[in-house]
Every structure is written in C-alpha cells, then in structure tokens.
Write a structure and sequence with these properties.
The structure is a single chain. The chain is α+β, with helices and mostly antiparallel strands and 398 residues long. Among the domains are: 123 residues, Sandwich (Immunoglobulin-like), CATH 2.60.40; 150 residues, P-loop containing nucleotide triphosphate hydrolases (Rossmann fold, 3-Layer(aba) Sandwich). The protein is 14% helix and 28% strand. The protein contains six helices and 20 strands. It has a seven-stranded mixed sheet. Strand 12 and strand 13 form a beta hairpin.
C-alpha cells in the first residue's frame, strides 16, 4: 500500500511541477561582428518547458566574463530600457499552448550607460527570463561578442593669424628757410572791431543708462504642473546688455526641485533662453543626478534637433547652431567623467573652445577642469534627492 501512495505522489509531482524548473532561454543567433556604441543589434532565442499561454519578460544583458556587472539596453517595441528589471518591463512575451516561445530581441549599448565602464573588448552576452512580476532571472547560456569604442578624436585647432606690422614712415627733412630782408612797415589805420554774435556750442546729450533689472525678478517657480522658468519680458530685452544681472537677480539663491526627467529637461530648455554667445556653464553632481538630462533640454532650447547623449567616450561633442542674431556658431557638450587628471585634457583644444566667444559651452564634471575654467561662468549644482526628485541651484563663477 505504501508503494502505491509513493507512486501516485510521484505522478502528482510530474504533473504539477513548478515552472521555475523550466529550461533556460537558448540563444540561437547573435551578432558575429563587432558591436558599436549606440547601434542596435538582434539576438534570436527560444524557450520551452514553460507555463502554457503565460506572460514572461526578457532582457538583453552584457558583462565581462565571470562577472554580473550587467549593462546594455533592451527594446520593447517603443522604448529602450536600461538597468535592472525593476527599472522597466523590458520585452513582454507570451508562450504558446505548449509552453514554448521563439523570436528576436533587440539590444543596444548606450554610450551614456553608467554601468559600461570598461571600453573595447570581448564580453559575454546573455538573455534573462523573468516571470511577469518576478525580479530574479533565469539566464541563457553566454555567447561571446566583441565591443568596440571609438577613439577620442583630437579637435582641429584653427591657427591664430600672425598680425602684419605696418612699415614705419621715414620723416622727410624740413629745409632751412632763407631769411628775406625785412621791409619798412607802412603805418595803417587801425580798424574798428565789429561785435560778433556769441553763438553757444551745443553739448552732446549722453543717453541714460538702462535701468537695472529688479531684484525681485524671478526666473523660476514651482507650479502644480511642474516648472515654469520663462523669464519676464524686461529680462529678455536687457539680456544682451546686462547678462550678469539676469543670472544674479534671477538664478542665484534660487533652488529648483524637479520631480521627473521631463521637468529637468524643461528647466534646461528654459534656462537656454538666457544664454548668449561666449557663455560657459559648469555642471557639478554625482552620476544619475540629472546633468545630461538637463543638457538635453538646454540643447532643445537652443534649437538643436540632434539627440543629445553623454559624450563619455569621446569627451567633446560639437553641434552647429548658426544663430546670427545672437552671434552663436556652435554648441559644445563636454563630459570629463573618464578623465583622471588635467594631463588627459591637454591637447584636446578645450581651452580654445571655451575662449571662443562664438560658442556656448556646457561642461559635465567641471571640477576636473579647475585650472582651465574661466572666472566668468555659470555654475550649476545637481543633487540626487529621491528616486525621481532632483535639486538644482546656480551660482556665478566670479
């Protein structure tokens, strides 16, 4: 009788076995060429032995062999997801009536991925399978891929023309006059002087200096719908004449709180309205504090259509503006995260970029450029408050 009970218990276990023991994903096709940054690639995978008609989530993950420091983004059909599974849904798939699935997954390595810190080399590529609500992955077998990071380009410097010295004129000697005999003067009648009209000389009128911007001008305020930092009309009209007053009266001493990345971008976009040719903006803050998100909005405010990504691996990115009204030619986005010392910066032409009065320059990790920063600049400090909340304040670098 005991043997019969054990036999039926075994059959019950086989029928109702936990699907967590199901087979891991199997990668059947993957890129066999070099993977470049910010370029998508396709991985083909299959799975079986899962719960019938069930929803699972899949993630592309890349790491150095033998480690679990994963990086890489996964495309869900409309959005790229980066980070751990708790940060997004990744790709939702549904098994068939036999508990199987097969298909393609798109992945990518973003140049601003904070987990990708090791540069070019050979890495392991995996597919992670999660349940619909779980946060623990069942990993596929790893396959080897090659990742290439482009070298940092050296900016082409425009030579400074050598001024031409005008020749010095040699003075012509003045001839010595010959004295002529003095004639005897004939006495003449002294004329009676005629009174002349005393016409006053008009004095030039000195134009009055523009009025100072009110100390009560406020550039930013928090509203129920987010941040509104559009400047008042008088702030815009005086901006070209008195930019220092704008930032002193409108930014200094103000604290901006953003509650999501859209508000951080909006802050940057409206901040751009006050920038002028020759401005240098230095950004300070830890990883994930919102610096690059702020720059994305700032570039949009300058009219740049290109997607702004962190130039972590190329250090300097240049964007053409051609705003003749404001005399702005180029926008430079500089990221010094991967530089170890100022020796790494020498030869990149950053000093020439900063000193060009036709440029607007924004520098992330500006503390690494201490000896090159101009005294006249705008400093922006970013603080990570909560998961989505950031605190940002500004000061002048005088």
């Amino acid at each position: 009788m005991k043997a019969v009970v054990v036999f039926f218990a075994f059959l019950f276990f086989l029928h109702f076995a936990n699907p967590a023991f199901a087979a891991a994903p199997a990668i059947t096709a993957y890129p066999n060429t070099t993977i470049s940054l910010d370029t998508s690639f396709t991985v083909t995978a299959t799975m079986s032995g899962l719960t019938n008609n069930a929803v699972y989530r899949l993630r592309v993950a890349i790491a150095q062999s033998g480690t679990s420091n994963y990086f890489g983004s996964t495309y869900d059909g409309s959005t790229w997801h980066m980070g751990s599974i708790s940060d997004g849904n990744y790709v939702n798939i549904t098994t068939d009536g036999n508990g199987a699935w097969g298909g393609d997954i798109q992945g990518k390595i973003d140049s601003d991925d904070p987990s990708f810190t090791t540069g070019s080399g050979t890495y392991d590529l995996k597919i992670g399978r999660y349940t619909q609500t779980g946060v623990t992955a069942t990993w596929s077998n790893p396959v080897s891929i090659t990742v290439t990071v482009p070298p940092t380009p050296t900016p082409t410097l425009t030579p400074t023309p050598t001024p031409t010295t005008a020749p010095t004129n040699t003075p012509t000697p003045t001839p010595t006059p010959t004295s002529a005999p003095t004639p005897t003067p004939t006495p003449t009648k002294t004329p009676t002087p005629t009174p002349m009209s005393n016409t006053p000389t008009a004095k030039p009128t000195t134009p009055s200096a523009p009025e100072n911007i009110s100390q009560n001008s406020v550039l930013g305020k928090s509203t129920g719908d987010g941040l509104d930092i559009s400047p008042p009309e008088n702030l815009i009209s005086d901006s070209a004449k008195k930019p220092d007053n704008i930032f002193k009266n409108s930014l200094i001493g103000k604290v901006f709180i953003t509650n999501n990345f859209e508000e951080t971008q909006r802050l940057g976009k409206n901040f751009a309205k006050n920038l002028r040719a020759g401005d240098v903006v230095a950004l300070y803050g830890d990883l994930g504090s919102g610096k690059t998100t702020f720059v994305q909005g700032l570039a949009e405010g300058l009219g740049i259509k290109n997607r702004i990504i962190s130039p972590t691996f190329v250090i300097v990115r240049k964007y053409r503006i051609m705003n003749h009204e404001l005399r702005i030619m180029d926008f430079y986005h500089i990221d010094l995260y991967r530089t170890e010392s100022e020796k790494d910066i020498e030869g990149l032409g950053i000093e020439e970029i900063i000193n060009n009065k036709n440029n607007i320059v924004v520098i992330e990790w500006a503390e690494k450029l201490k000896n090159y920063l101009p005294k006249k600049r705008i400093d922006a400090y970013f603080f990570y408050e909560k998961e989505n909340e950031r605190k940002i304040n500004f000061s002048l670098g005088f």
